[in-house]
Amino acid sequence: MTNYDIFDEKYYLAQYPSVQPMIDAGIFKSAREHLEKFGQRGGVTKVSRYFDEQTYLRNNPDIPPFIRAPNNNSNAPFASGLDQFIQFGYEEGRTGVSPDYDEAFYLATNRDILPFIQNGTFKNGYQHFVKFGSKDGRFGTPFFESDYLKKNPDIVPFVNSGALKTGREHYFKFGSSDPSRSATFVGTSGNDIITGSGVGNAELIGVEVGVERVYGARLYESDGSNEFDTLIGGIGRDKFVLGEEQAFARNVPFRAAQFYIGPGFATIRNFTQGQDSIELVVGSLDQLLVFPINNNRDLAIQRKGFPMFENGVSVPSTSPFDTIAVIEGGGNLSLNLLPFTPLLSSLV
To answer: Which of 80, 261, 296, 297 has its CA 20 to 30 A from that of 213?
Structure first.
């Protein structure tokens, strides 16, 4: 049952630099040979960006009693959680292996792989992710990894060298406390709870987002229809995205991506007046109704029955009064356009 699919030779050598001289001297043919003959039994665990020893043990409490320790369990069968995972856990289909991978999120945003799981090609989404998905630019958590690396090119060399596992690791260790850093958190085509984090700019998008392969731009793969998402702001400057004017949407380049048309809307929490903003696609504020609800506690944003425009063509609204969002605790707010950005709106 032993399986080394997760092994990343470049990453392993970055974590254990003493191995390369032994390869150069001919003691080992490769880093994997070192792992198989020495490292695995010696208790090394840093073999992949997407395996974390502590996460695996925490999510699989049945395993620690079977791990050897210097002064305890000396006859236990495994040198580490990784040792157990390589021998059995991977083929058993265990997926709680890393803070940089969420099985439910990956399956929800990569529905094209579901037939291959059903026919047994892969036991789960994680097996696809480590063999193909991570190399194809797919990401395994709501943290928009490729977008963060694109916006923060200074950390890319550290990720490439293995000094950092991922951009996500950088953000939660360092970037979230740096006001100059920004991050984007995205959802699926189902109902999601998306939470912002960090002291800088955080972008919250409840719909499913991918990466357009030719231009590397965002590709909106759902539009919020029949989605009831909750977007929760953090302590920094949050932007709640309810649409984007120039976007790739449903494989049609550069059209207006309007979210939550028809059934479905976003619930926005922790909106900070004068700091946070909401991105909408509207020609003017006259196309919206904004009014307090729930005994004036909350604020509703609705589209009126005016025509909308897609690729310059007028199309009818799906509903005369279509709720886009509800701002919890925002009953006393009003909607105003931000300067120089006629399609961005800010509640102040």
So the answer is: 261
